Structures are given as C-alpha cells and as structure tokens.
Amino acid sequence: MPLRDHFRAPISKRWSWEGFHGLWPAAMVQKLVVQLPPGYVAEPRVHLGAFFEIDVCTFEEGLPAASYSSRAREGNGGVATATWAPPAPTLSIDVDIPEQYAYEVLVFDLERDRELVAAVEIVSPANKDRPGSRQVFVAKCASLLQKGVCVSIVDLVTVRDYNLYTELLALLECSDPSLGNNPPPIYAATCRKRNNGPKTKLEAWSWPLVIGQALPTIPVWLTESEAVSLELEASYEEACRALRIA
Predict the structure, then answer these.
(1) What total number of domains does the chain contain?
(2) Cα–Cα distance for residue pair 78/84, rounded to 1 Å
(3) Is residue 133 part of a domain?
(4) 197 confidence band (pLDDT: 50, 70, 90)
(5) Model pTM?
(6) C-beta separation of 129 from 160 below 8 A
C-alpha cells in the first residue's frame, strides 16, 4: 500500500496524525524484535511535553514546606545556620522554551547494562514548526550520534517544508549530495558514527519519501559491524490497518 498524506484531506478529516504517530512506534517495535539478536531489546516511547510539574514537597514525607534551617532547629534543638540568599540574577526575561515532542523507538544492549545503541525518531509537526523546535530536535540527534548511538529519522510531515536530516548534517558541517539543492520535506535517513583509525567517520543512508509510493527498509546499527533491517513499509501498514486508515 502507498504512503498516505496524514496531514491533508481526505485522510486528515477522518484520522488524526497524532493517533497514527502514537501507534507507529509500537508497530516498529513488533517488526524489530524478531530481527534483534539475543541481548537486545526495543521499546516504543512517546513524550508530548511537560504536562505536569513535580512538587518537591511530596518528597518530604508529608512535612509542610519549610526551610531546611527551621527543620534542623526542630530536629536537634541546636542553632541552625542561616540559609544562603543568592544575589539578584544578572538576567531575568520571559522566554518560550520549545517543548520536546518525541515519537521514537529505542534499542538497548542488555549486556552493557541497557546501553542505548539505536534510536528511531519519528518527526512531528511540533519538531518543525519554528527554528527553536528544529534546533532542539537536531541537537538531540547530534548528541546521540556523539555518544555512538545510531540515529534514524523518519519524517512524514508534509505541511512544513523543512528537512531535519540536512539540518543535522549542517550542524556537523557536512551535507548529503544525493538530496540535491532542494531536500525533500518528507524522507527517511539513518546516521551513525564509526571509528576510522584516528579519525571519526559519519555514515548516512537517506531516502526521499513520496506520497503514493512504498516506504524503504532502513538499517539500524547495533554495533559498528552488526545491523538489523527495519521495514518501514511493513510497520506503517500494520499501524494503518490497526487504526483502519484507508
């Protein structure tokens, strides 16, 4: 079955992209687990920003919010040291820090204490809606690569013409000539860092995606010499069937 446009009619009028993006990582995991060798596990993750705050008072075993000095005084009867009052901040302004929306699949190596070895990042509209959001997403991918994690990016967002894979490469001061001067807004790519003697080599595989055509099979690297295949088309169709997306 071909790739649908989940962000425009007629699909968007009957099925939300959020529902599909929420289910697709689980469908990917189902396809990956039969490929992974013993000692590896894959898990789906969905994070939609900070919808709640942790109240630090809940960690005080029910004590009312009070300063450390007053509790110390009550606890031992001694004279408490006054709490330190820091100076006024040198900067205090209103800012709008972009939330980190994440739809992803993470692969862990159990023999290395659940060390993260690969991540499949599914791009959402919020990841592409403004420069700050794109920078946060790209910085996250670059940090994973720096730690030796294989990073795959899958972008079906047709309503925003940005290619986060090329922005990631630009941050790393390189480019992918296979994409030409006008990188496609929807695409799939896998990147990994590999040691090449005293130097570090970046290797990448990229595919432009086209509405109406099948999705590619991408490599997910577990080590420098071992990879498994992730059939995006199979997991995509599984998610569409589960949601009854025509």
Answers:
(1) 1
(2) 18
(3) yes
(4) confident
(5) 0.81
(6) yes
